[in-house]
Amino acid sequence: MASPFTILCPIDFSECALNALEYAAKIGEKYKAKLIVFHVLNKQDYQNLAPLDLEGTYQKEFVEQKLNSLQDAVLKESIPNGLQSCEVVISDGAIVQTTIAYSQKINANLIVVGTEGMNQFKKQVFGSRSSKMVIQTDRDILVVPRKAFFKRPKKLVYASDYVEEDKSAIKKMVEFATFFDSEIDIVHVSSRSRVIDKALHKTMVEEMKPAISYDLVNYVLKAFRDDPALGLENYLQLAKGDILVTLSKKKEFFDQLFSKNLSRKMSYFITKPLWVIKSA
Hints:
Rossmann fold; elongated
C-alpha cells in the first residue's frame, strides 16, 4: 500500500500559523492526507504567549495543551471530510533547520507555513523564518500570509519561464486543481513584447497541451515594461488569482521576489498564498 500524502504544518500559535493550519487541513481533506502539526520549542515565542512565565517553567505543558486543543478541532472538522489523520509533534532546536530536517525524516509531500506577509520593519515580503524555509527546504512548500483566509481556490496562476520542468510542475498542479475545480493560468511575463517571446510561447503551448488532460487551463503571454515580478502581480490582480505557483529553480524570480525595494511595491501578492514546487 502506498504511503499517504503527508502534510507538515509548523505552528507557533500566531494568527498566520493558524491560517496555515486551516489551509493544511482543507488540502489534507482532498488528498486524504496525514497531517502533522509541528512545534519547535522556542523561548521567545513562548514568552509572547505566556509573559508571566519568564523562566519557561511550564513551557512544554502549556504548548502540549494548545497543540492538543488544535488537534481536537482539526479531527472534529476534517476527519469526516476526508483527512486521514492528524498528529502533533514537539521538537527542540533551531526552528527552520529542525522543521526542514523533520520534513525530510517523514518524507513530507508538502509543508504549509504561515507568514506575517509584508514586514513593515524589515521591508521584505516574508518573515525571516518562512523566507529561509522556502529557500532551504527540498520539499514543496505553501506559504500562507496572515491576511489569507481559506476559500476554495478558483484560479491558480503559474509563473512559467519556458523550462522543461514546467511540464511536471503543471501536472502536479492539475492534480490539485481537480480537487477544487480550479482554473490554471500558465503565465509568462516578458519585460517587452518581442517576436521571439511570441514564438517561444506558441511552442510551449503546442508542447504542453497534449500532455495536460485538464480543460480549465489558459496560456497567457504578458508584456510588462517594468519589473517582470510586478507584471506577474499585476496579472494576479486583474485575473483574480487565488494562489501563485512557481518553481524554485527560477533563481532570478526569487531574487526579485525577496528584494527589499521590489517587495515594498507589491501589495496584492502578499495577501495570497505562494506555492513553491521543489520537486516537479
